[in-house]
Amino acid sequence: MADGFELNQIDFTHSNGTIALQNLTLRADVGEHIAIIGPSGSGKTTLLNLLATAIRPQQGQLHILGVAPWSLSKSKLRHLRAAIGLIHQVPPLPPKQRVITAILAGKIGQWSSLKSVLSLLYPADIAGALHCLTQFDLGDRLFDRCDRLSGGQLQRVGIARVLYQEPKMMLADEPVSALDPVLSERTVQTLTHYAKDKNITFVASLHDVEIALKWFPRMIGLRHGQVLFDLPSGQVTKEHLHTLYASEMRSFSQEVPASAL
Amino acid sequence: MTRPVLRDPQALPRFFFLLCAITLMWPMLILAQFQPMALFDASNREVMGNFLQQFFPPQLQAEFLHRIFKAVLETLAMATAGITLALVIAMPLTLGMTQSLSISRIGPANGYAMSQAGRYVVRLVMVVMRGIPEIVWALLFVRVFGLGPMAGVLAIAITYGGMLTKVYAEILESGNTQASRALFLAGSNRLHAFLYGLLPHTAQELASYTIYRWEAAVRASVVMGFVGAGGLGQLMDQSMKMLDGSEVSTILLVFLMLVFVADYVSWLIRKQLA
Predict the structure, then answer these.
(1) Which candidate from B187, B197, B198 shows the least CB-CB separation from A78?
(2) What's the pTM?
(3) Distance in Å, alpha carbon of A49 to nearest chain B alpha carbon
(4) A172 phi and psi, to 5 degrees?
């Protein structure tokens, strides 16, 4: 069994009846870097949530880091979750929290209960948090409140928290959606370097295909909740991408009235 | 392709519920004998005038003021001890009852049904605690512990513990729960998800409600004084029985001052937490 992840004939349907993933089978080894691309609503976020144990599939088998999360005991599931780092598209940071607290929160799943509580009185690891934040040029914002930061800065604080968590598997849902092209590329570079350094599995959904091609050796194209292609990046062709995004292009040209063009 | 609708589809249901609310309210007002004009009736005005006239001037004798001072301390102690105990009851129950602090809801994991059932039981206990008025609890405890503040403290602790739990849980559920959910996904437990994920943006509201409850507890402890739980209420009860309006008005003035102070403290704390 791969210690990355293994999905076997997974089905997931949202509570409103929308089918998000259908008969999905995927596996990854430790240390693989995978980019997931596909049009909006193709199931990218659902797939990442599945890997993050945020949702439970209705059908199929799922193994993350070598274990089946939904048959674990409560405390074992907590341990597994502490080993999975999920970078959310919208950083889930309370506006009134200080950046230092937001970053240190990455480790509360691993710290003792007392340490987590005491850290609210005096930050338990200022140096560690600073080290993670400096990698994103935000070292001088360590003691600012989150609501003082711009959307792009906040997104990078969210990323810094996951690096601080030191996960065994890193997941990222559109991690650079609020960043400009130059910063986007540098941030993705930092993430892939980190994953390589620690030899951990790294899965990211991206809408920038060029960044995905450049930094990820393996690419998965998702469409309508199914894998359209799963190839080494070198083998992904223009035709692949065209088919992947085809439905979006067509529906737009149909809906836009002629007068607006 | 469906045609876009140019009409608010929610308009009809909204209008229907408004109509329901009005048709329900009307008979209630009649049941409650709601007749505001009676306030301005000539004979009623005279009765009220006479009643209010007794209140003037307030009693300001040193000996009485000294008694009031002692009673104020007793009332404050009763309210504060009651609220503190209520907090001790409410905090663990809130952590257990709040939906947004349910780990097994994510997934949902095995055992979600069990934890939902547990939450339901806590909710029922809450209803009993706050459903029985504090004065009834006080009457019960006076029989156990005898006359004095102890009965009042316990009565406040129980009723207000129930109220605090309910409102805390609602405050925690109404806010943004993304942060706490993200922490659960990073392996956090319930207490830490609350401290790191929910408290930052709910602290102000939680503090404000707690202080308001303290203010209400001061008032409640006065009412409970009437059944022998001590403090300002007991003093007021004596003055009322002796038909001494000037003493009652002094007590009421002191009372207003207490509420005023509570208001100010609440403002100070909210400013700190902003």
Answers:
(1) B187
(2) 0.84
(3) 10
(4) -140, 125
